[in-house]
Amino acid sequence: MKDAQTLSADDIFWVIAIPFTWGHQYRDFIRKAAEESYHNMVIVLESEAAFMYVRNKPVCFKQEKIEPFKAGQFYMLVDIGAGTSDICTHKVLPDGNLIEICSSLGINEGGERINTKFFNIFNELFTKKVMDTFRLESIRLYKLEKEFEDHKHTFKSDTDKDFVLLLDETLLTMYTKKHAKNC
């Protein structure tokens, strides 16, 4: 194994994962650009990259060890990303390659949609006008968004524990001033 000082560009094999939702024209453009620039690079779909990661690793599920994928086996990959949720199925071929059985179309139900629905509640509670002003005048909205995102990542469905999102005093003051004018 070489150390970092003796590595050259030819010592690295790049695997670039791109979303399935990118159109064929864009994927072909990326592939062509990569092939012209680097001979040791492959462009794969995110679902293919996920399989490459787990293909030879045993997986533990509920205390039961599931052996790595073998030729003839099928699997379903569920990728819940920011914008979409993608579900596809593949079959493992004898040479270790994959054949796609059912491709994903990218269902518009990713994590960002949850965020949008959640923060639309703020528009209803405080009015869209107040929220737009708050967004422009205070960095606290971005902190709220980050706190909500952090809660999503640590959420466990088997608990009754509520999560608390602290509201900024600025938002409450903006709403109170607007509301007081309308009374």
Automatic annotation (TrEMBL):
Q: Which Gene3D superfamilies match?
A: 3.30.420.40, Actin, Chain A, domain 4
Q: Which InterPro entries match?
A: ATPase_NBD
Q: Which SUPFAM superfamilies match?
A: Actin-like ATPase domain (SSF53067)
Q: Which residues form the signal peptide?
A: none
Which superkingdom is the protein from?
Answer: Eukaryota
Q: What is this protein called?
A: Heat shock protein 70
Species of origin reads Dreissena polymorpha (Zebra mussel)
